[in-house]
């Protein structure tokens, strides 16, 4: 049986509380990415959402991580936080030309995160998806849509994502809707409910549940214990790559949660 690659990580790598719980005491801050990338299998770069990065930064990040490590990258907010998405081409082009390709084979999915107030407008959203290239200079680009408004919980949105073969981010959150519909040849989940009450952010049974779901996705299956908008399942695939990130919640616990899931998947 063919099984996709499962990658697990957190958002960013520079967070002061992690120096008390995740990083070894006294580890220089400049070595934190090196350390984190050898404990985790992926990291979502969040700094790109707030500020345009340089090609030199992307090259440095690539050089400090293992050969099989992968970064996902959040697109700059100027690409998505606008009234008319159809007019975002200059911002998209600027972001994509900012140096992402310096990651080479370590470039994973690109996350396009929309404001919580952004509602689904089919024509405008379709125009936005037409602007997202499938490749750049010969390097494949995989796109993820993280929507945060209930108006996206409709079948036309899922159909549109499937037509363009972009993934819908599964966001486990107390604030935003959870859309589990599969729409691409990979799955992208952002788990945002870690709790300080547990050493690993999630109780062992929850880690078990997400481990099981990740394995099902990797085998091309669709877990039956999640909410789906569309009555029609995404086309059957032999395998899917899977990306799972622990984001927000009790953020100080997220590296422990990621490590716990990685260990559970090994078992």
TrEMBL record:
<dbReference type="InterPro" id="IPR036520">
    <property type="entry name" value="UPF0759_sf"/>
</dbReference>
<dbReference type="InterPro" id="IPR002763">
    <property type="entry name" value="DUF72"/>
</dbReference>
<dbReference type="Pfam" id="PF01904">
    <property type="entry name" value="DUF72"/>
</dbReference>
<protein>
    <recommendedName>
        <fullName>DUF72 domain-containing protein</fullName>
    </recommendedName>
</protein>
